[in-house]
Amino acid sequence: MAKLKVAILISGRGSNMAALIEAAKAADYPAEIALVVSNVAEAPGLAIARKEGVPTAVVSHRDRPDRETFDRAVSVELERHGVELVALAGFMRIFSPWFPTRWAGRLINIHPSLLPCFKGLHVQQQALDAGVRLSGCTVHFVIPDLDAGPIIAQAAVPVLANDTAETLAARILRQEHRLYPLVVRWFAEGRVSLAEGRVAVTGATPLLFSTDP
Ligand code: GRF
Fold it and tell me: Which run of H or E residues covers position 36?
């Protein structure tokens, strides 16, 4: 069976991208990473993708007069590679409403908190400041509102008494690297459906718990 063609959009380090590329190496993984796009030419993740032999494209936002022009340029790259699912992984550009509309139902993001808590930036510090005992990460559909689309899956981790934003981020990131490849697999297997703003995942549990330190 043909594998689902996935694009990953990055702006930086690309560790989630690397986890997806790694997962997709397995012969029985039902998705392939068809393209990595970055808006930042120097993004370290691009070098990883190139080393892995994954096609890459740089679409700089600096060259575009407005958000929608940038979004359309990204979309052209995605179409050129026959992309069927777009996974944001540390992509630090806010789209115009055009992009999530164009890719509705096929555009997902991973965010390092248990949404709807702690949107935006510095979310681990937000979690520490709020005193929550549990945090984690969320994979969700992308809609024009930031960090607000329908939730597909979450992974939960404990927040420990001596945590700093860095130690909590590292604990969450380990779960991100488990959760994102799983969700992309479920997509490729046709298990993920969206109706009236709520997501159903058939035949899998869209929730991970980790008590790893
Ligand atoms: C991750 O924590 C992700 O949840 C957030 O940005 C970070 C990207 O890290 N959206 P990386 O580039 O995947 O290493």
Answer: strand 31-38
Report pLDDT digits (tens) over 85-107: 999 999 999 999 999 999 999 99
Q: What is the pTM of this model?
A: 0.97
Ligand 1 pocket, Cβ-based, cut-off 6 angstroms: 10, 12-17, 45, 89-90, 110-112, 137, 173, 176
Q: Is the pLDDT of residue 177 over 90?
A: yes
Active site residues: 111
Structure tokens at 128: 């520490």
Q: What order do you get walking across the sheet with 31-38 strand by strand?
A: 56-58, 31-38, 4-10, 85-88, 107-111, 134-141, 151-158, 207-209
**AA letter at 43:** A
Give which of 113, 90, 92 is closest to 169, Cα–Cα: 113
